[in-house]
Amino acid sequence: MSASEVPLQHAAWIWLKQNAHIPNQYACFRKKFNLSHVAENASADISADSNFILYVNGIEVACGQFSDYPEQKTFTRLLISEFLHTGDNVICILAYYRGQDSHEYRKGLPGLAFELKCDDAIIATDTTWKAVQHPAFTSGITPRVTRQMAFTACFDARLSAPWTEAGYTDDSWPSAAPAWGKDFSPEIVERPVPLLEIQPETPARLVMQGNICRGREGGSFAETMSLSYLLNLPQESVFTIPSAHKTQECASDLLRTPDDRWLTLPPADTGDGRFLILD
Which of 94, 152, 171, 259 has the smallest count of CB within 10 Å of its CB? Predict the structure, then answer.
């Protein structure tokens, strides 16, 4: 491997400024930069403990850290010229730290490393990046699916912000911090299998909708789900349909009105939540 191909050569491992490691933590990272031109072979290397989603100029480019070990981290190399442009650009990364052992993960230290090479331009993680805990995901201990599996993901869309968009203002965000000291330096190896590609969205049909009704709390999230039941309801009882379309029939395989406006899904009046089944 030539010097130009050495992975993450200029990247520092970074994380949030905090006094202790928080398991099941979701962190947002942003870096603005300027390019005078875009090379045809611009590439990016990325690695994280424990997972990542990469956005370039507001577009989701890749996701999915390959399973590895704390002392031997895998990296993913991506060709990203098509997502860059001359002038101002922004890299956004949602990083996730699991922080508790499971059947597919061995506990490591939270960290993110990223490096973009575009001819002579190098954009790499350091403490000039902006970083905050994601406001909509619940970070910290949540119920685990089972004792063998990982945490359940809890997301409150009301608290979300368009932080991956190029025009978003991150002036109030604090800077990132070094992830760990110089006494820890994991080996960096290339992932052994290719990353799954992001394909165009596949049309889906709405099969059923209604309320989730809880029974009692079980010893695990999976057991709690097994003690719950789904109450099927007609579409007009679940979705809020704009008044202009109250007299029009909404096809069961559409989540938009005839003029392409989205239907909305308000909280349930009874029960403990809503469910949708798509095919």
Answer: 171
Residue 224 main-chain phi, psi, to 5 deg: -60, -45
pLDDT value of residue 247? 46
**Which residue in this structure is represented by tokens 């933590």?**
25
Question: What is the Cα–Cα distance from 54 to 104, expressed in whole angstroms?
Answer: 22
Give the total residue count for the chain. Answer: 279
The rounded percent of the chain whose pLDDT value lies above 70 is: 90
CA–CA gap between residue 138 and residue 125 (Å, rounded): 25
Question: What are the start-end ranges of the E strands in 64-169?
Answer: 72-79, 87-97, 111-118, 121-124, 130-133
Distance CA 118, CA 114 (A): 13
Name beta bridge partners: 32. Answer: 90
Helix segments in 152-220, DSSP class H:
none
- Cα angle 216, 208, 204; round to 5: 125
What is the Cα–Cα distance from 110 to 95, expressed in whole angstroms? Answer: 9
Distances (CA, A) of 100 to 61, 83, 242: 28, 35, 45
0.85 exceeded by the pTM?
A: no
Instruction: Give the 3-state secondary structure of residue 4.
Output: helix
What the block records as the tokens of 249 is 């029939």
Per-residue model confidence (pLDDT) at position 159: 95
Q: CA distances (Å), 155 to each of 17, 36, 160, in order? A: 22, 38, 9
Q: Give the position of tokens 């994280």.
A: 48
DSSP code for 227 = T
The pairing of beta strand 14-15 with beta strand 177-178 = antiparallel
How large a percentage of the chain has pLDDT more than 90? Answer: 62
**Do 139 and 155 form a contact (C-beta atoms < 8 A)?**
no
Matching residue, tokens 């049309």: 203
49 pLDDT tier (thresholds 50, 70, 90): very high
